[in-house]
Amino acid sequence: MILCYCYSRFSRGGHQLKNEVKEIIITGGPCSGKTKGIDFVKKKLEEMGWRVFAAREKATDVILGGVRDLQELAKKDPQKYLELQKSILQWQLDDAKNIRNLADIFKDEPRVILYDRGPQDNKAYVPEGVFDGFLKELGLSARETCFDFDAVIYMVTAADGAERYYNLANTARSEKDLQDVRDLDARTLAAYIGHPHLYIIDNSTDWNGKLERLFKAVLRVLGIPEPLEIERKFLVEGFCDEIIPAPFGIEMIDQIYVDIPDKGFGGLSGKSRIREVARNGCPDFYYLAQKSGGASLVRGEREFDIRGQDFDFLMRYARSNRMPIVKIRYYFVYKYQYFSLDFFVDPSWARGLYLLEIELLDENDKVELPHFLNIVKEVTGDPEYTNSAIAKKR
Q1: What's the CA gap between 173 and 30, in Å, rounded?
Q2: CATH number reported for the structural domain that contains residue 317 in this entry
Q3: Do residue 199 and residue 243 come from a single domain?
Q4: Residues 187-214: tens digit of each pLDDT
């Protein structure tokens, strides 16, 4: 028997864009500070008038609730251990459904759901291939366990870069060797590579600085004080996908430029971009975005999840002076920086173009470029390399 846990967040009537609650996974390796970080963020947002729903870490509840030997069971009784991991996954999905229903009661308030670990975390705690087996058995895909969440904020373990603060005495944790912890940290991060909104908070600052960067990432997701995109862009030549470090995420993007008339779609109008995305084997993600600021480093950006039928409806407003863009996007991590690399397939005049991008939390953030890429020059601010300019009919 297949149990189906397919919970859709996106229930819109007609073409009305509802005030959907934002859902943010805050995760990381052992002793990364994520749980205290969630408490910090929750308090700050509540002081700003937000209704904050916080989902507890389920694995810790299992451990403290009677299964203190959870990690030991992985060696002593692997079958029982895997059953526990599958139960944790189901519990997380049920909890997410219940919290979403609770949040729906407060549609007239600014609200957000913060998850202490997400369903995709389980992939790091079982042998390769087992998590995919869980998904198949439950009738799920990475859509429900990863991509349906608005953002993932990853806090790096103190065992990597802040070793003297690593707490080996925490009874809800059994990893005693720092390298084992770093390996687990890397596996957990790898589980989320490919999510379009992944923010990595490393140990390059002190604890207070780490908390402030976490809070800044949450504000970015919520569009506070305004929806912004801070992004640097680089031209790359001589690329082949074999040189991208594993693990990496990949998606196929079909992008159309439209001009929506007044009241043409859910109260939105004007020049916009719509996308159909197939992501890591999960097809049919649809987005509508409006940007301002041209090619500058800091731009205004509003993005909405839409349905396939909305995408088809908006196609009627396609701009006659723009061609569709088709591109393959690779996501990868280099020195705790999250990069995306676009390979343009269409239009024909852009075929073979590679653009490397990195989204920043602050325009002064330092960027260390991947040594394995042949980066020709930075093109941030160059109007020739905006997607809209690339799509312009020749």
Answers
A1: 7
A2: 2.40.320.10
A3: no
A4: 999 999 999 999 999 999 999 999 999 9
